[in-house]
Amino acid sequence: MPALCRDCDAVVAEEATACRACGGVRIVRHPELFSLAIAHLDCDAFYASVEKRDRPELTERPVIVGGGRRGVVTAACYVARRYGVRSAMPMFKALALCPEAVVIRPEMAKYAEAGRAVRALMERLTPLVQPLSIDEAVLDLSGTEALHHAPPAVTLARLAREVERTVRVTVSIGLAPNRMLAKMAAERDKPRGFAVIGRADAAAVLAPMLVSALPGVGPKAADRLAVKGFATLGQLAALSPSEALRRLGEDGPALAAMARGEDGRPVDPSREAKSISAETTFNEDLSAVAELERALWPLAERLSARLKAKELAAAGVTLKLKTASFQIRTRHARLPSPTQLADTLFAAARAMLAREATGVRFRLIGIGADPLAEAAEADRGDLADPAAPKRKAVDQAMDRLREKFGAGVIGKGRGMGS
Amino acid sequence: MKIKVERSALMKALSHVQNVVERRNTIPILANVLIRAKDGALTLAATDMEIAAVEQVAAEVVRNGATTAPAGTLYEIVRKLPEGAVIELDHPGGDSQLALRAGRYATSLVCLPVEDFPALQEGALPHKFSLKAGVLRDLVDRTRFAISTEETRYYLNGIYLHIAESEGAPVLRAVATDGHRLARVEEDLPDGASGMPGVIVPRKAVLELRKLLDDVPAQDLVEIALSDTKIRFGFGAVTLTSKLIDGTFPDYDRVIPRDNDKLLRIAKKDFAEAVDRVAAISSERSRPVKMAIAKQGLTLSAASPEQGTASEEIDADRLEYDATPMEIGFQARYLRDITDQMADSVRVEFKFHDGAAPTLIRAEGDPRAVYVLMPMRV
Q1: Do B261 and B350 have their domain in common?
Q2: Rounded to whole angstroms, how far apart are CA atoms B3 and B5?
Q3: Does residue B90 carry a pLDDT above 90?
Q4: Is A136 assigned a catalytic role?
């Protein structure tokens, strides 16, 4: 069975437990190791890793990135995870599990920069890199063997070491014949992992997994499948397309195909994230419109900054609210024309908020851009909004000042005195 | 309450008021029409809390009284009764049902109490003037197509009616825009209108008003009364009252091009028909029709990736154009909406700046209606 030393790229003998060339023990072996080309790459505990990189004294400490007494965990390092801390967990719960954790407020600009650096390394290997988020991407390395004088598995092992050396964060890699299996593989060996799922073993690997392991199958969908007698992927995989349609409805055949490890989605570098958003959890529940708006404005500014950073614009705005009883409400409005401007995003969200803020107590508010449009289409103004290009110019002038003197140097009156 | 009424009179009145009732309403009483017989007159009323229509119907009142019945159902029943039938409506009072009899047909409808029927409070309407029905119809027709339906800019969801100055004289002006096109139409300022505030009349009221105007001779006067928050249109037996949109209409004057110097004049009929033929290639509504204009003539063209291409040439002797050649694209439907407002015998006048800037369009010799259209990229 082909085997590879991840520390020096040496091809390792069949049963060796350590590399004879470098003595390393990080050996990956798989019958299809040198014939697979689709890879999923995921940075390990990314935000927390970047923080630890910049503050080496925290290396051994549990680190949680997240905000506020009532915020949630955005990222937890692997030390903190040993205490049971998970991302998206409420901060108070995380601190109850791990009182000695160091909590760090997220600094998106820093993570975005590190994410870009990782992406640049990937793009040196193949143009077929599809970013899935700031710290996650899928690569198609088919046909790169001649270019890199090595099969994709070797190229990927080198990439992982290169990321560690230059960006100084670790990554986990999944190698497989398609995107879904590559993602599943990446999740099997974390952190600093390298896992392979091949064509021949896909069915056996997937069969015992729970249906919730499939992309798009959340807890509710998993419950519905369980009621119909489908708890594992093996049970789903056994369905013929017509049986799947009859028993599970329209989505049935696609679910059964996924459960068999089939995934025809190509790696498409032009497909970016479908939405960009910003949200915040309040220190105390809010119900007054004025207070909710005050919380909304900085989010609109943050969303505007993220859109600009990614050279995208919002063609629609989503308002997200979570009530004190954890019920989530989302409202959406299509914009007359795409925008990157915080005040246009804010105005659209505010109109929706006015209809929702009827005295209900909310614990969270968020604003998102969906669908996304190209930056070139943004804020060109129309007959009903001739001032848009002027607002855009003001906004760009403010951005230039921020770039030169720091984020706090200038802001709109709306964001002050609150 | 007991009345006898001729079928066609009742049907016409019901068709008016039942348009007003809220279709997807969640408050049951708003689906009902108020029927009141008093002192020899039958009155029907309906409201969706934003607009209200009240109509008097000639009827024989046997016994005074009032009730409310489902507007849609009542209209359907009356519509199906034979022409010329005399309908008897009988409601003994309290929470009993409304009996409707016509010839050998009889029905009984569940009613809701009159006390629950909401009144749209008009308040004082200090500004009063009247317009000929034909004039009002023109104002509405030539602007309503440009009303926006987009919710985020709710202040565009109506016609902005206000006083403006045009060549030194005050005029009553109607403006509507959805951001892509703008229509500005004006009429002589009627007596009594000076001092009125600028108001935005919501789309639903505009559409309802337009339907009512169909039944009114052009020379008849429509009484208009308004305040900052309400407007009322009165035509004989019918009164339509609407809340106004509480918002600020954008400063449209800034987007009306002043310096567009490339002038094209072309017979409306030639142009509109050619646009129609060329645009037929694409079923996609937002596809542009390209205009390539030069002294030698105008070429209209359209292309659809699925269906093919089409073009039509209009020779120089059938148009007037003296400027440098240019190309510009517009959505065919938007061009149609504008040319539809012009008589077949006129020439359309375009004033261009370039292929990317707003274009001014009007009928030659008619300065009272001005349209502005944003080009599309072609």
Answers
A1: yes
A2: 6
A3: yes
A4: yes
